[in-house]
Amino acid sequence: MNNRSFSSRLTWRIIGIVSVVFLVSFVLVGWVLQSLISDGSVRIAPWMLVGGLIAVGIIGLVVLFFVCRRVIRSMTRPVTELSVSAMNMAKGNFKAKLPEIGSKDEMRRLHDSFLYMQNSITDYIEQLKKTKSDNERMESELNVARAIQMGMLSTDFPPRIHAMLNPAREVGGDLYDFMRMGDCLHFAIGDVSGKGVPASLMMAITRATLHFMASLDLPLHASLSRINNNVAESNSHGMFVTLFVARIDLKTLRMDFCNAGHNPLVVVPPDGEPYFLKAKNNLAVGLIEDFPFEAESIDLKPGTRLIAYTDGVTEAENTALEQYGDDRLLQEVGRIDRNMDNKAAVDQIYRSVLAFANGNAQNDDITILSIMV
């Protein structure tokens, strides 16, 4: 119902009520005058009395109609103007002018409610614009940080090795590294606790330290001890890094390795089924200074493939919240062709994880590294 029909209906209702009162009064006055005439105390022709009363009644009703209509329209005009303002606000003009209300009744409170709503919406939109601008700036900065972080990782892969890293957010805490020094191939894979910017900063520190320690060609347990102390000294937020570091003598194929709380390496011998490499339990890096890390050794056969990964692979979840798991990883690695290059092997494992997740959001960084000796 629009405001004009509201004022008209209100006018007719008031006139109806007044008319009933007026007609009742008219009948009572007519009855009294009729009684007087019947008694002979008043000499007026009945038709003149009736005609006069009808004329007076009609004139009174017409005057009453226009007076009531004018008064009601004046009283309801602010409602009409407020409805127009509300319509403009609904169309997106949140600064539409509201009518001036001089009274201090319900109409004034309605005006103040509209004004409060108008100011609240305007303030919210301004805050939303500012938030959007801040988010866009932060997103741009995170994209730059992602590019810098990805640029820190080695991507010039030799024929023996290939790796991929896909963060769950713009930046992540996974890392991998490799370096060849003479007849030795150094490689490492790690996972920083947590996600996002703090994890990426810890990842950058750890990766730089790893690369430096590999260049010193120290025993693995000594290298990890130094990395551990370096991370622990700069770790004020209780973060830690799981690491698997190894060094392969490419002549003898002897691999020295040390596992600091990381997922076990998958070994694929040239003439057997893939298996998880058992390793001594060492603490993750950064938890306790001067922890005595223990390194181990294993002799590899020519044609052996090594698959290193982070828990973003085995803990990937599908829509039913089922995890990819160790068994599924071993099965997928077992399906890799023996003559497949490392890039194709990494891609096959990653596609298997994505197919298992079936569109479910990635909840952790995913890193996969493949080495053929």
Sheet with the most strands? 5 strands, antiparallel
Q: What is the CATH-assigned architecture of the largest domain? A: 4-Layer Sandwich
List the strand order in the largest sheet.
1-10-9-6-7
Q: Helical percent range?
A: 40-55%
Low-confidence stretches are none
Brief overview:
The chain has 373 residues and is α+β, with helices and mostly antiparallel strands. It contains eight helices and ten strands.
Structure commentary:
The protein is built from eight helices and ten strands. With 373 residues, the chain is an alpha+beta fold. It folds into three domains: 3-92, no CATH class; 100-152; 159-372, Phosphatase 2c, domain 1. A hairpin with a 6-residue loop joins strand 6 (266-268) and strand 7. The chain is rod-shaped.
What's the SSE blueprint?
Blueprint: H1 3-39, H2 46-90, H3 106-152, E1 161-166, E2 174-181, E3 184-192, H4 196-216, H5 220-233, E4 241-249, E5 254-260, E6 266-268, E7 275-276, E8 296-299, E9 305-309, H6 311-314, H7 325-334, H8 342-357, E10 366-372
Antiparallel strand pairs: 1-10, 2-3, 3-4, 4-5, 5-8, 6-7, 6-9, 9-10
List key phrases describing it.
373 residues; single chain; Phosphatase 2c, domain 1; alpha+beta; rod-shaped; 52% helix; 3 domains; 5-stranded antiparallel sheet; 10 strands; 8 helices
